Amino acid sequence: MADGTKPGAAVTPPPPARKRRRWTPALFLLPALVLLGALVVYPIGYSMVRSLLDKAGESFVGVDNYATLFTDDSIRTALANNLIWVVLAPTVATALGLVFAVLTERVRWGTAFKLVVFMPMAISMLASGIIFRLVYEQDPDRGVANAAWVAVHDTFNESSAFPKAHPGPESPLEKSEGGSFTTREPVRAGEPVLLPLVGVAPDKMPEDAAPAAEAKADPGQVTGTAWQDFTRGGGGTPSVVDPKELGYPGIRVEAVKDGRVVAETRAGPDGTFALPAEADGAQLRFPADNFREPYNGVDWLGPTLVTLSVISAYVWMWAGFAMVLIAAGLAGVPRELLEAARIDGANEWQVFRRITVPMLAPVLGVVLVTLMINVLKIFDLIVVIAPGSSRDDANVLAVQLYDSAFGDRDLGVASAIAVLLFLLVVPMMVTNVRRLRKEARR
């Protein structure tokens, strides 16, 4: 033969190019696989083994650490709060993201609105926690939430200017039912009545308070003076209107006969007041609402509301994330379907409910599951926002893991919590991966 090969001799074919390159991808993947094993696989395996050992890690305790998860009060509170987080936070954030994405499609300034809503995502959890810790301050002069809440409340229920006022030892008033103060004896027309009170700090007196004056006698009226029977700097005579003492402007005075209010009025800036002739022979009463404590708003970070308050901070941060993803999905919805539905007579709510939402179901599912995985790891907001007095009431598994590991030094229970979190996250991750693969095959 031309090539010198003997007839009938076996010819060895060259190795296929595919076999020669078999290890090439593995070499490129090796660094990533090493990092994955060192940073993910090994810690998971070690946590599973460590969760079966005692606090010191010296003896095998089996599932005792896992039993502790369901018997310890702090951990059970964390489990309950995690359930609230998983159900409420992703649902609200996804719902708001859907609403924002749909509505911003129809407004001219939609892009600017999306930018504003998405901006909290650029802020770290720590910074957001500090912001909302200030927002939820109990003092209305510092906390934005209570400042707004108190403003609305006081619009419909006026606060008292004299919450600490009460009669002095020589006052003709005595405490009566419901926190009000009533004169011991009936009053008479033409005989001015002096009703001294004490207990209001000079710097807390209303701005319109004027120097107190004695009321003039009027045979057809019951007149009197309600004033602060205290002279700043000392001096003054008890139960006597002194020049430096201030009246109680706006304080409400009632005339009561046989348990029934027959007349009422409010005092002027100098504390003087006048009641009609019907008040003759009645007892005068300062109603309890004159002395009601000022409304200081809601205890947002108290044991009852702390979890919901922190969830609100989370939703503020992540609603923009949900909006951006849903808006991207909404851009892929065929407009022909929407227009056809409108032509067939469907209103906007029907179009939204029967076409938009079903078409966005895959995107909504991805957003919802992603946020569920995210809230299972929530840590920063709880630590920063919840005060020490209600920290236990806001507890979640990630915070409890930290407390068990670095506070109680119980690495067995901490590892069990870590394994529980891992087991809770795995089904959600599997669901997300399957959904993504299903979408990729379409």
Q: Mind explaining what this structure looks like?
A:
This protein is of the alpha+beta class. The protein has two domains: 64-147 and 300-441, MetI-like fold, CATH 1.10.3720.10; 173-291, no CATH class. Helices cover 48% and strands 9% of the residues. The protein has 14 helices and eight strands. The strands form two sheets. The chain has a five-stranded antiparallel beta sheet, with no helix packed on it. Strand 5 (252-257) and strand 6 form a beta hairpin. The relative contact order is 0.14. The mean pLDDT is 88.
In short:
The protein has 14 helices and eight strands. The chain is α+β, with helices and mostly antiparallel strands and 442 residues long. The chain is elongated and about 135 Å long.
